[in-house]
Task: inverse folding
């Protein structure tokens, strides 16, 4: 797989690229967001923990291979910004393209590290919010 | 509530105190682990996102008020350690005391910050792993 070297000047740039790659089911773009030299962590909703760049990539490869296209709107961001690390907590509102199914909202913790090549994702932990639990959601903010 | 000021010299010290407080259902000890001056984040398994010290405390208060006592063993730790922040990913194996029920394993992302008063928890994101998903688990490492 040819590597696209992209520079993310801010954690927000990396986050935007992450969700764009997810919507586009673009594995190369997705993996360009992740830190290659760290023990990266990825937990898909309801899924096992994937650890390490290779395992995380294989998880996305399998997910994208299913051919499902998603549209994702984000809301309720909470950001804790450090010099070298940034923690973003967001609600994801996921729509499966072509299906009239409302999936439960997902809460995601996204961690970004600043390295020589800009900001990269260290961890993505996403979990569905049980629909039996009341959830206050503001108007979703679309990514685009 | 009288504040116990405790100093955690390492992220691991804070993590040990976190799980001890959880097992003991001790709200004061639990809240002494959290960073008071940050926008802390807590996601209980299947639950909504709690944000801010007061909301996180109320979440623990309600949980502890239920009277359920838990025993928790941890396994599969992955740590990414920075100067001022530390990210721990662990599997939690939770047993409800007095009940012969096997709960599904939980994957937790714990984030600790180093401040003037030592290491404190910034975020705890826990989500159950769907039991339909195969999960390789090593022998659990008990906390004590």
Result:
């Amino acid at each position: 797989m040819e590597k696209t070297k992209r520079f993310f000047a801010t954690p927000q740039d990396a986050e935007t690229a992450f969700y764009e790659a997810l919507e586009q089911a673009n594995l190369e773009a997705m993996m360009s967001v992740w830190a290659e030299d760290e023990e990266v962590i990825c937990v898909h909703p309801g899924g096992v923990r994937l650890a390490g760049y290779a395992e995380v990539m294989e998880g996305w490869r399998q997910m994208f291979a299913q051919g499902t296209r998603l549209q994702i709107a984000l809301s309720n961001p909470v950001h804790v910004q450090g010099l070298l690390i940034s923690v973003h907590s967001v609600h994801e509102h996921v729509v499966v393209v072509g299906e009239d199914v409302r999936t439960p909202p997902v809460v995601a913790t996204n961690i970004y590290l600043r390295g020589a090549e800009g900001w990269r994702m260290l961890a993505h932990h996403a979990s569905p919010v049980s629909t039996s639990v009341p959830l206050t959601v503001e108007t979703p903010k679309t990514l685009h």
Observations:
- The interface with chain A takes residues 38-39, 41, 43, 45-49, 51, 76, 78-80, 82-85, 87, 89, 91, 107, 109, 111, 113, 122-123, 125, 127-130, 133-135 of chain B (CB under 8 Å).
- The CA atoms of residues 47 and 127 of chain B lie 8 Å apart.
- The radius of gyration of chain B is 15 Å.
- Confidence is low (pLDDT under 50) at residues 133-144 of chain B.
